[in-house]
Amino acid sequence: MQPISPSPSRQSPMRARRLGGQSTPSTVDRDQAMRDYKLSIEYKHLKSHCPGGVFIVPSLDDVRLFHGVIFIRRGVFTNAIFKFTLTCPPEYNDANTHPKVVFSSYVYNPHVHPETGEVDMKIPYPEWIPHKHFLVTALTYIKKIFYIKDFSDLTEEAKQKLPNQDAYNKFLNDQEGYRRRVAECVKEAQRSTYTSLPGSTIRFTEEDVSHQIMRDLLAERFGVNDDDANASFDSSASSLVTKEGVLESIQRAQAGKSSPKSSPRFKSRTPN
């Protein structure tokens, strides 16, 4: 007796697709899940390898959208606080699928489009190679563009493709005018520090008195001065950070036993 094959009308849609040579939904979902998994590994890697002064936090609603902020500590953009988003297309982790970086803060920089705020990632990386280029690659580059002193490393073709040609020409021919425009964008970014985009997982708030006190007490207790950007940790001059010491500082902060200093801070809304 030979088995009876089901008639075409009784075949499931999934089997019909397999017979037709098309990818089944399970295969598509599996491939996308693998891409998402690789992306999560890249984000985990950033915890110990993210460029200094750069912070990103995943969106609460989209695993491929990250909200970020970069603090500029020196150079012509000193004291700027620029916010941005980093988006990875669904095909990210496939060859030549670049992440998309867009500044929500206004940035006057040859590498940043003056209207859209987008950074052209194809200028430094014409080809995006998954086993060579990662999220940290993009973040390192967007930090680098604020410290560039010349454009000698770019080809003539790349120079012509820079998104903000006005900024590029001023950089070359009118340094005073370039610095003036940069100073304006830095001030504008500072004024909008406490303005958060809808849905952003990074938001800035003014410090409560208790937070200001806490920072001062921790610096006093453990010998760390966060006002000195060039200070290094000296174990011989600093106390060992302990749970008991931190709890003691918290109790003192609640009691209000310190003189507060004023400075902005930022909070991240971590996804569950």
Short description:
The chain has 272 residues and is α+β, with helices and mostly antiparallel strands.
Uncertain ranges: 1-18, 227-238, 257-262
> Taking strands numbered 1, 2, ... along the chain, how are they ordered across the largest sheet?
1-2-3-4-5
Q: In DSSP terms, counting alpha (H) and pi (I) runs of 4 or more, how many helices?
A: 8
Number of E strands: 7
Q: Which overall shape is indicated by the principal axes computed on the Cα atoms? A: globular
Our Rg estimate from Cα atoms comes to 25 Å
Largest sheet: 5 strands, antiparallel
Helix vs. strand class: alpha+beta
Beta-strand percentage?
5-15%
List the helices and strands and how they pair.
Elements: H1 13-19, H2 25-49, E1 54-58, E2 65-71, E3 81-87, E4 100-103, E5 118-119, H3 135-144, H4 156-160, H5 165-173, H6 175-191, E6 202-206, H7 209-222, H8 243-255, E7 264-268
Antiparallel strand pairs: 1-2, 2-3, 3-4, 4-5, 6-7
Helix pairs in contact: 5-6, 7-8
Question: Could you explain how this protein is built, in words?
Answer:
There is one protein chain. It contains 8 helices and 7 strands. By secondary structure, it is α+β, with helices and mostly antiparallel strands. It has a 5-stranded antiparallel β-sheet. Strands 6-7 form a two-stranded antiparallel sheet. Helix 5 (165-173) crosses helix 6 and helix 7 (209-222) packs across helix 8. The longest helix has 25 residues, at 25-49. Residues 1-18, 227-238 and 257-262 have low confidence and may be disordered.
